[in-house]
Design brief:
Length: about 60
């Protein structure tokens, strides 16, 4: 899959196992399903609605760009 995405010039992010990143209706949503604190990349230009780039266990972050 990574090769196909690279060939199509689609950006991919290597997230830790248990961390999900979704995009829905203009919102980026990060979910941490691990028992460890995880840090994700949120662009400096983003408007963070909920949470921070440092996701606590079971944490959520929501932002728009």
């Amino acid at each position: 899959m990574q090769r196909i995405y690279r060939e199509a010039n689609v950006g991919i992010e290597d997230l830790p196992t248990g961390v999900l990143l979704e995009w829905r209706d203009g919102f980026h949503i990060a979910l941490n399903y691990t028992s460890d604190t995880q840090t994700i990349n949120i662009p400096a230009s983003a408007k963070i609605m909920i949470g921070t780039a440092c996701l606590e266990p079971a944490g959520v972050a929501v932002w728009t760009e």
